[in-house]
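subagent[fold] <- orchestrator: predict structure for attached chain, return tokens only, no commentary.
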Amino acid sequence: MTRTAYPSDLNANEWSILEPLIPPAKPGGRKRDTPMKEILNGVFYVLRSGCSWRMLPHDLPPWQTVYYYFNKWRKAGVWEQMNDALRTAIREKEGRESEPSAAIIDSQTVKGTAIKGIRGYDGGKKMKGRKRHILVDTLGLLLVVLVHSAGISEKAGGKILLQRAHQKGFSRLSLIWADGGYNGEPMRKWVQRLAGWLFTVIKRPDDASGFVLLPRRWVVERTFSWFSNYRRLSKEYEVLSETSESMLYAAMVHVMVRRLARQTVS
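subagent[fold] -> orchestrator:
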């Protein structure tokens, strides 16, 4: 039976892009009886609407099935792999190298909820919850994400994030832009020792007042604004920080597949 589409649903063109990235079913055992497109539609519905898994509409697959695949792919790193594949496709579509040579780092503190899990207090933002640390390319596309207690400083969290980036082996990466919260000179020396990257702090002019558009810094802020369109990301509803990270990757997958589909049609 055909159902009415939700705004978060994948159209035919978007699905054709994502379908090759879906892990194949393991040989033997019970065959998949739920269309993988509908599994993704269920995940994207949760992200966009902000509802809990148990409140998925009945015309989508059972919430247990949708969550099973989301969690299975989280553990296998599939959401991150999808993110990497789509980011590469967009970069090449725009005539860029598949891997970036420069990136921007920043963090965002998000309020926690009554759900258990790692939480902390961010004295600067006066907020209890978690920090989302992201590294993006110059298009604002996710390279690496890290979710941790809001009580951990930008410098400490940034080091963990950049270690992850180094482990992923971005061979062309040579320059990282950041804000003043990363303690410029000590961080610059640490990054140089870690990977040989140039770490540059973009500071707000001392005589500036009100809103100032800072070069490069606006790119990562725009990425955070993309996340704001996904209500499930408005607060920290996840027990595990690893689940939060997968939610961020999945949201970026949704953003990028729609962008790719538009570019393909045009």
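orchestrator: received. Logging for downstream: Strands lie at 102-111, 120-122, 127-136, 142-149, 175-178, 198-201. Residues 241-265 form the longest helix (25 residues).
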